[in-house]
Design brief:
Blueprint lengths: L1 H5 L1 H15 L3 E5 L5 H4 E3 L12 E4 L11 E4 L4 E12 L6 E9 L5 E3 L2 E5 L15 E8 L3 E10 L2 E4 L12 E8 L4 E6 L2 E7 H4 L7 E3 L14 E3 L15 E3 L11 H4 L6 E3 L11 E3 L11 E3 L15 E10 L4 E9 L2 H37 L4 H5 L4 H8 L2 H9 L2 H11 L1
Antiparallel strand pairs: 1-22, 2-5, 3-4, 4-22, 5-21, 6-12, 6-22, 7-9, 8-9, 8-21, 9-10, 10-11, 12-13, 13-14, 15-20, 16-19, 17-18
The structure holds 2-acetamido-2-deoxy-beta-D-glucopyranose (2 copies).
Length: about 425
Amino acid sequence: MAFGARDPNLFSLFLLSLLAITSAKVFFEERFDDGWESRWVTSDWKKDENVAGEWNYTAGKWHGDPNDKGIQTSEDYRFYAISAEFPEFSNKDKVLVFQFSVKHEQKLDCGGGYMKLLSAGIDQKKFGGDTPYSIMFGPDICGYSTKKVHAILHYNETNHLIKKDVPCETDQLSHVYTFILKPDASYSILIDNVEKQSGSVYSDWSLLPPKKIKDPEAKKPEDWDDKEYIPDPEDKKPEGYDDIPKEIPDADAKKPEDWDDEEDGEWTAPTIANPEYKGPWKPKKIKNPNYKGKWKAPMIDNPEFKDDPNLYVYPNLKYVGIELWQVKSGTLFDNVLITDDPEYAKQLAEETWGKHKDVEKKAFDEAEKKREEEEAKDDPIDSDAEDGDDDADDDAGEDSDADAKLEESTDSAETKEEDKHDEL
Ligand SMILES: *[C@@H]1O[C@H](CO)[C@@H](O)[C@H](O)[C@H]1NC(C)=O
Ligand SMILES: *[C@@H]1O[C@H](CO)[C@@H](O)[C@H](O)[C@H]1NC(C)=O
């Protein structure tokens, strides 16, 4: 690297980046190889109600490598909760990278594919929907309107949803979701190693009260003219304007042959709307030369705002978990990673998802083709109708209620979690 010798700044930058790579710390990495069961604890949550679903250890129906397995939800209408422990750490002054891959083989109608980071103090055997978590991250799909990446941060005893919209993948293939949180409270969200959203925790979540607020004391000055248009003082009502009648006799009307003036009274033609009549006179409008724009209260520092330099800090991270309700099973998780090094995460995604994605896509296309052929064989006349038959019931329920779907999209994940509990 010739530039290094010439430019001491660049050279030290180069050394620094080398250092950064070599000092990458991996807090947790799970590729679901043999022995994964000893690292993960299936919760007893919902077991006594017989609605706890079983995980299937599999590469799925289509994959890049049959030996590269993950864990997949395998029963419909079930709750799933599983978690793994890692040595407790704090992300203070560190970059935090949370990454995993997820594949919805079932053509997900309504359900999540997210994971949670949890802090010390939970009971893994009781891990469930009500267990407090620190970060929840990953895709969530419901109907046509909710197709988003959740990024929920727990702060000050409350779960806060990201305010920006981050669309998620909706196909039936594997995708890698990455959440990066940095000590300057900036963050980014990647899907398949491509950044989809980034910004500051300060502005994209409402963890703290806003820094600036409208001055509540400020008042619009009396003489503030905020009318953009005014009646033209020069405009005058044309002479005779008010004499134009609203209705006029219908010139085409004829007195009926059998009209008897004595019995029926004097015949008058029926009236019709006068095309000349333009309504009451109004002067035309012109731009107000004194228009000052809409009045806005000046922004002032919010007295309620107190900065928290540890806004991004989770001092006792200790578990990673999956907690889901699935109407239709088939969601497969793999390659869970928690590290302080985005480069390492990127490499891992390339080595796993990146290496396999083309073969997986090909296998999926073949499986689809086979499915379509078989369906056409079953019912050669009406193969189209047969197509989505599997999900006809679920679809009908959802599609018929566009409002519910709209609501769903504005719902918080918490509400949805409550809903899912109520559903049974
Ligand atoms: C597990 O997944 C494989 C591959 O999709 C499938 O063949 C098998 O039937 C599944 N097992 C269970 C118990 O769902
Ligand atoms: C925490 O939340 C409570 C209740 O909403 C609020 O009064 C308090 O100001 C919050 N503290 C911080 C540091 O944001």
